[in-house]
Amino acid sequence: GKVVPILATHCSQLTIVQTMSPEEFQNAILQTEAADVLFLLGGDGTLHTAIQVLETMKNVPAIGILPGGTCNDFARTLGIPLTLELAVESLVNGNVAPMDLAQINDRWFMNFAGVGLIADASENINPDLKSKYGKLSYFMSAIQSFKQSEPISFQLHIDGVSYLEEAVMVLVMNGNSIGTHRFPLEIIDPSDGMLDIIVVQSSTMVAIREWYSLNQPHIVPDDLNNITHYRGKEISIKTSEPKKVDTDGEIYLETPLQIQVHSKKINFLIP
């Protein structure tokens, strides 16, 4: 309710559409080709659902994210304030910037794709915990998954070079925040035409400490023993048996994966 008056003062024509299902939501998006800006109220799952149809459209409006989810990770990546009124003010007075989009098999992701304990953590979140503790439930679940994770054999192929990794988790990142945990690697940028691959080799306490140490600006992944960092534009990930994949917090894909970045594919409003 507080958002509409702010938007109305900046728009010559403002249409509000409330949808009741993912299909209805995607159909509503398809009707926005003539719009200048499409504001999406929701979290990372809402954005993930939206980009599956946005990438098919000939004329895509600029996207304004109004953070209304649990983690709002891509909003965090773009530096959008997490309070709705502040988010609207910052976006209507902000700039337009093109962002990369990542294709994964025949689907798309905006923020990240992950195999291993990230998918376990997403699947294991207790719905009661999620409603009570929000983003904290993600960390509780991740730490539990950390404790019980067995390494998986990964065949990675990154821009023509092959790597064999034994790891509990592989993350392919376009954004720099997962589960509200911001990676301090300044190099992770959703508009640089590259994807960042983070490989976590083990789930020992040392690895857990290294994982959380990534929040400290002076930590360099190359100096860590349990975490490896790659960068690339075309990535394939194979495992000996199919493993579930988390894309932007949604789980419906399995390995093997073909991932490629599409540079500066969608315009976003940024503060």
Largest sheet: 6 strands, antiparallel
- Ranges with pLDDT <50 over ≥5 residues? none
Shape descriptor: globular
Structural class: alpha+beta
The Cα radius of gyration reads 19 Å
Indicate the proportion of strand residues: 25-35%
Mean pLDDT: 87
**Quick one: how many beta strands?**
16
Instruction: Give the end-to-end Cα distance, rounded to a whole number of Å.
Output: 21 Å
Write the H/E string, N to C.
Answer: HHEHEHHEEEHHHEEEEEEHEEEEE
Kindly state the percentage of residues in helix.
25-40%
Tell me the strand order in the biggest sheet. Answer: 4-3-16-13-6-7
Q: What labels describe this entry?
A:
271 residues; 9 helices; six-stranded antiparallel β-sheet; 29% helix; 35% strand; alpha+beta; single chain; globular
